[in-house]
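Predict both folds.
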Amino acid sequence: MPAVVDKAAKYSEIVRHAADVFSQTGYHASKIQDIATAAGIGKGTIYEYFRTKEQLFLAVYDAWMSEFEQIIRTRIELAEDALTKVDAIRDSAVEFYQSRAMQAPLLLEFWAHALRTDNPAFLARINQTRDFLKATGTKLTKELVQAGWFREVDERAFAKLESGISDGIFLAWVLDGQSFPLDKAFTFRQSLIGMGLLNDDARAVLTNKLNTKLKRGF
C-alpha cells in the first residue's frame, strides 16, 4: 500500500528549502533543481505544488508574512493594555527580523521584484501585510489616545508614518551588515516617538525612563 503523502507538510518543506536556496544565491540565479536537491526530492515533485519558480518565490514571502501577522495577532490578544500592545508589536518585529538574519536580504528582493514583475500578486501580498500593520497601528494609536497616554493625533497618518520608520530601520540594519542591535534601535524609535506624542500627564510619568533610553541610544 503506497504511503500517504501529507501535502501540507510537503508544501511547507518545499517552501522552507526554497527560502534557504533563494537566500543563498538570489531569486534569479536559483534553479528549481537547486531547491529540489536541497529538499532531497525530484524536480517534478516541486512542479506538482508550484507551476513556476515565481509562484514558489511568492509562497516563501506569503509564508513569512502569514507567520509574522499571526504572531502579532496572538501577542496583542494576550496583552493587558495599550502600552503592552506597543511592546508586543515591537518585540514581534524584532524577533521576526532577527530569526531571519541570514535571509534578511531576501525580503528586500521580494520588494524589488514586486515593483518589476507584471505579476500583481506580489505587490498585492506586500500591501496585504502593510495594510494589516497600518490598521493595527491605527487601532492601537486610538487606544493610546483614549487611555490618556497620547495627545490627539491623526491615527491613520501616524500609523502609516510609523510603519515606514520601521521599514527604514530594517533596511539600515541590512545595509549596515546588521552591525547595530535591532532591538535597541526599535526601542530607541519607540522612545523618541513617545516623547513627541505623550500628553502632559503621561510625560510626567514616563519622562525619566524615556530620557534614559534616548541618552543610551543604540
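Second protein follows, with its predicted C-alpha cells after the sequence.
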Amino acid sequence: MWSISPDGTGERSQAPLLEVFRVSKAFGGLMALMEVSLCVWPGQIKGLIGPNGAGKTTLFNLITGMLRPTSGDIRFQGRSIVGLPPYRIATLGIARTFQNVQLFPGMTVFEHVLVGGHRHGRSGLLGAIFRTSRMRQEEAEARARAWRILERVGLAEWADRPAESLPLGLQRILEIARAMATAPRLLLLDEPGAGLNPAEKARLVRLIRSLHEEGITVLLVEHDMNLVMELADEIAVLDYGRLIAEGPPEAIRQDPRVIAAYLGEEDEVRDAARS
C-alpha cells in the first residue's frame, strides 16, 4: 500500500476510501493535472482548494468518470475505477454536486430526489412493464426514502414546487439531497457555497457536518477559505495542475506556497490565517 497518512508518520491501519495515484490529464497540449496523488480516508472531510484553473473540477470529473485520465490510476475501496462510466461509479458509492447547479427542467423538488434513488431498484425492465408486486414495493420504498431525505434537509415544504423556482441556496441543498438519495460512501461537493449568503452558508455547514456524523466521507472543493477551514480536517492544494501542499488546516493556512498561489487573486487565505 503506497498510501501515507496526512501527518506524514506512515501508513494508517485503515485503507483509504479513495486513492488518486500520479494522475495526469491533458487537453491537447494543455496539461490540466500533472501527476497528482492524494488519498481520502474513511470518515474525513477533506478540502481541495486552489486558484481558478488549478484543476479542481477536472479532478472531480476524473473521479466520477466524466473524463478519463491521460495517465495514472484512481481507486475506490481498493478497486480501479478508471474507464468505468459515471453510472457505474455512482453505483459503487460515489456521488457529486456541480459547481454550476445542474437541475432537471420541469421536474419538482420531490422528483429530483426520487431520481437520485433510482440505483436502488432491482426489478428491471420487465418489472416496470408488468408492474410486478416487487416493482410496486420498490417504488413505494423509493418514495418513502425521498420524503425522508427531503425532511432531513429541510425541503419537505417545497416538495411539489418546480426545482428551478427555488432560491439558489435551496437549489444547492437540493443537489446534495439528490446525491444523498444514492446512499453514497463518498460525497464530492463542487463549490457548494458559491453565491450563497451568510445564512445560507451556515445552513450548508450544518448539513455537511450532520452528513459527516452519519458516516459519509466528504471531498469538498470550495473557494470560501473560511468555510473550508471550518469544515475540513485535512486540505490538499492544487496550483497549475500540481499538488503543492497537503495537511491539516492550521498548517495549510500558514504555508507560504499556498499564500503565494493565491496572491493577486484573493485575500481569503491571509484573512483565514488571521482568524
